Hints:
Layout: E1 3-6, E2 37-38, E3 49-51, E4 55-58, E5 64-69, E6 75-82, E7 85-93, H1 101-114, E8 118-124, E9 127-136, E10 139-150, E11 153-160, H2 167-178, E12 181-182, H3 201-207
Parallel strand pairs: 1-5, 2-12
Antiparallel strand pairs: 3-4, 4-12, 5-6, 6-7, 7-11, 8-9, 9-10, 10-11
Amino acid sequence: MAFRRRERRTELSKLDATPPWDTRRHQSEPEPTTGPFDLRDAPDDDGSRVDLGALRVPLWPGAEMRLDVNEGQQIVFATVLSPDGQMQVGVFAAPRLENIWDEVRKEIAASLIEQGGTASEEEGAHGPEVVGTIVLPDGKAPVRFIGVQGPRWFLRAMLVGEAAKDQAKAAPFEEAFKNIVVVRGSEPLPVREPVPLTLPKEVVAAAQPDED
């Protein structure tokens, strides 16, 4: 398992804007999550997941992970990479029950088109998705956005490369996304605020100097 840390924001991470949203609270309990999972619904399985604090993300043989930071040096995205493409995942604060994916999809599509790419909607395993092309420094690339909302969190995945258009190549990414566990925590955050991630404990331990 390999990690790479990127210190600056890229074009891929600029697509998430932060308009105001309704943050009214409801007393009824949210529906159980079936994958991706809220911590309270996490499966009792033997699946290996990279513990990033707010996210526990599966990796498969041949895949590696890169952690991306914002201007404040907080880790806000994890990107899973393989020869078939990459999948950036991030978790954001959300209203307890009100779904924001409809508005987020419109915003993503508008951003893609404004930057010279393309965007349309397709139905996926988790509901409506945004698919199209994104303009990168080395040209256009296929892109696909998946969004799932749980209790007080919104999980967004962005697939780029062959995995964004080839179902066979997308399969391991989709399986990993489905088995992510979200640990939202109790900290109050503005709606659409990224929930900060943390370095895995084994990475922190490896970076510590040996004591005599």
